[in-house]
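Q: What would this complex look like in 3D?
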Amino acid sequence: MSWRREGRRIGLVPTMGYLHDGHLSLVRRARKAVGSDGRVVVSIYVNPTQFSPTEDLSAYPRDLKNDLKRCREYGADQVFVPRDEVMYAGRESSCYSTFVTEEQLGRSMEGKSRPVHFRGVTTVVAKLFNIVLPDIAVFGAKDWQQAAIVKRMVKDLNFPVRVIVNPTVREKDGLAMSSRNAYLSAEERPQANVLWKSIKLARETVRDSETAIPASRLKRKIEALMKSHPLGRLDYVEFFDPETLEISRQIKRGTHMALAVFFNKARLIDNGRL
Ligand code: AMP
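A: Here is my prediction, written as structure tokens for the whole assembly.
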């Protein structure tokens, strides 16, 4: 609070920890946005309400000691690591009953595959905004739909926060960095860049064509590519308007693409502009 009284700008980077260079890029972006007098807060919280009972909440990778070390290296001014008792009056508590839901952008893609997910995200982000009172918050383009939903929530509920979306940071072979990459076995890892290859394949196809391409044709191409990566199982691939998230049937340059692929217990997502 004293930071606010001192007139310092505050930047928030919400994460679930197990930090990697993608998270680091968000901290750097937050630092730039708040200026040299500003302060950057990184939150680390594996938020139970965004996992369904069948998902990987208990298995989600955690390494708080290393995360705190990385936050120091990244130059975060404060790390906020709330417990479930603070956020939800305890796990599975009957003393918690208020949620924030976005009702339009969250219906497709991740929202369709993971029905409770975005309600958990909007609720925890709203709570973090109320606790930290940031001027800006930085999210990754890696979770494109999530960023769009958070922006919508901020606009709809008049949160005085500027949302910044930072580009996806990738491994050398194109795999988007993710805490969940830790689940990949040595056999799965080389095949996991099929998400990035799919985006590039769709992008090249669209850019080589003079006319719009039916989504069904691009989907077939991607399904064929998946066959040469047999450890992966396609959950969905969608094409959509990058702002409204409205699903597109005819794909042209500038349309956005997102996909989710299972590798055994790892469920990976990626997206990109075509
Ligand atoms: P997570 O810890 O996975 O919940 O992610 C926390 C924030 O980091 C979210 O805003 C993500 O979109 C962002 N993020 C995760 N992976 C990447 C990446 N590879 N590049 C950029 N941002 C990322």
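A: To summarize the key features: The first strand starts at residue 10 and ends at 15. The longest helix spans residues 117-132.
Q: Very helpful, thank you.
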